[in-house]
Amino acid sequence: MSQQVVTRFAPSPTGYLHIGGARTALFNWLFARGHGGKFLLRIEDTDRARSTPEATQAILDGLAWLGLDHDGDVISQFERADRHRAVALEMLAADKAYKCYATQDEIQTFRDTARAEGKSTLFQSPWRDASPDMHPKDAPYVIRIKAPREGSTVIHDKVQGDVTIRNDQLDDMVLLRGDGNPVYMLAVAVDDHDMGVTHVIRGDDHLNNAARQMMIYTAMGWPLPVYAHIPLIHGPDGKKLSKRHGALGVEEYQKMGYPAAGIRNYLARLGWGHGDDEFFSDEQAKAWFELEGIGKAPARLDFKKLENLCGQHIAAMPDAAVLHELSEFLAVTGQPALSAEKLALFSEAMYCLKERAKTFPELLDKAQFIMVDRPIQPDEKAAAHLDSVSRGILSELTPQLQNARWKRDDLEALANQFAEDHGTKFGKLAGPLRAALAGRSATPSVFDMMLVLGRDESIARLTDAASGGS
After folding, report:
1. DSSP state of 442
2. Residues 55, 122: one domain?
3. What is the distance between the alpha carbons of residues 322 and 315, in angstroms, rounded to a whole number?
4. How far is residue 431's CA from residue 384's CA, in Å, rounded to a whole number?
5. How many domains does the chain have?
């Protein structure tokens, strides 16, 4: 591509960043980054009644968490209203648009009559070709574009293929309302042109809008962008995604403890594919992502697949990155931050925590032995392993451990020998040891916990348990 690729994400700030919107942003980001282009962000805040600063912030926070960085400043569509107005007046001056004085009642009467006669209810304004000297003085008017009446408009879409719309299906769209405010369709086309957007990648619910926005491009003599209208995301039941399917906002996924890299990977695979590759890095996704790989059918949200991918990403992430995201997870869920001491233990333990943890709550669950402080109160299941016989065994084992070399092989050899000397297998010792070290019955390996906690803390915990608590 000789021309620099420029994509954009243009959400309306009326609520959180929807998971479907996040995927649209991701596709735009991947395409721009993969082609060495620009990814721009525009907030479509023309609906003043519903647009809120809080919603804008929620969108920015969601994109930041997902790691989808944009180029340049965030564009406010509302602040560009004067420019949108100017374009409408330019079209009016060039006879590509006209002043329409029809009232709402007249438009309704036209539609009712057309319906009764079985004709098209698309409003055909009597003012389209009226000469200016026919215009009433000081009467309110809207400015309408002169839509083509003959032939058809073809949207060359990279996902949907060629989509043909008969021009007699297009009405003379309003550009400026009676109060002089520009309509959304005009604002989008002008902004996309002025921002230099080369590729408009968005949900296929905007497909019909493309034909109407193309009228503005054509009237202004602007080159058309490349269009790619992507199918929406459906729930597991094949129905349009809604609250009943569970989480809809990106921040909910963060609060559920999914890693951002796993979400990026999963969303990239929703409706786009590269061979049989399921698990891949951002760099691979940027290199592979092309519009031709997007399917036409709606993708289905599958939480099992999402969790599986997230587990693979946690396992593959550098320890520091896991700790950073874990700290962010604790912050957004209102949990206390980890102390420097606990963070150091987490760093030590990462090798035995990352494996098979699909989310940060699962990772924290495995790390319970780090989170608890002495004296440990075992839960009901673990307490069952600390009867008088088990405590006697711990009393005997602890002094031997105290004198052992604190290396995994030595600790394993000592524990196995101890079990053998007592005519049992190590498995029988594991329950009491887990209860003593973590207060839980499901934990990482006993030896991993001992190595992470260190000799002094491990011995102290075992001593506590052997004596029946503090």
Report:
1. S
2. no
3. 9
4. 9
5. 4
Binding residues for ATP, by number, are 243
Residues forming a β-bridge with 165: 153
Please return the burial class of 311, using the count of CB atoms within 10 Å of its CB with bins 0-12, 13-18 and 19+.
buried
Residue 55 shares a structural domain with residue 195: no
Q: Within a domain: residue 149?
A: yes
As a whole number of angstroms, the distance between CA 386 and CA 429 comes to: 11
Q: What share of the chain is helix, strand, coil (3-state, %, to 5)?
A: 50, 10, 35
At 6 the pLDDT is 98
CATH number of domain containing 402: 1.10.10.350
Q: How would residue 470 be classed by pLDDT, with cut points 50, 70 and 90?
A: very low
Q: Within 10 A of 399 (CB to CB), how many other CB atoms are there?
A: 11
Give the per-residue SS3 of 48-112. Answer: CCCCCHHHHHHHHHHHHHHCCCCCCCCEECHHHHHHHHHHHHHHHHCCCEEEECCCHHHHHHHHH
The one-letter amino acid at 36: G
Distance CA 165, CA 157 (A): 13
Q: Residue 469: its pLDDT value, please?
A: 54
Residue 2 has pLDDT above 80, yes or no: no
Report whether the peptide linkage leading into residue 11 is cis, meaning its omega lies within 30 degrees of zero: no
* Candidates 38, 119, 243, 304; catalytic one: 243
First-to-last CA distance in the chain? 72
Q: Is residue 375 a part of any domain in this protein?
A: no
pTM for the whole structure: 0.91
Catalytic site residue 366? no
Residue numbers of the domain that contains 196: 79-230
* Three-state secondary-structure class, residue 281: coil
- The sign one gets for the Cα dihedral 204, 5, 59, 65 is positive
Residue set of the binding site: 243
Domain co-membership, 67 together with 34: yes
Can you give the pLDDT at residue 256? 95
Average pLDDT for 242-268: 88
Q: Tell me the Cα Rg of the chain.
A: 32
Let me know: does 68 contact 29? Beta carbons within 8 Å: yes
Residues with Cβ within 8 Å of 435's Cβ and at least 6 positions away in sequence, in order, are 378, 382, 383, 385, 386, 390, 441, 465
Least confident of 93-97, 267-271, 359-363: 267-271
Q: How many CB atoms lie within 10 A of CB 316?
A: 15
For 348-361, write each residue's pLDDT tens digit: 999 999 988 999 99
Taking the alpha carbons of 376, 377, 382, 385 in that order, is the dihedral positive or negative? positive
Q: Compute the average pLDDT of residues 232-240.
A: 86
Q: What pLDDT, in 10s, does the model give residues 332-389?
A: 999 999 999 999 999 999 999 998 899 999 999 999 999 999 999 999 998 899 888 8
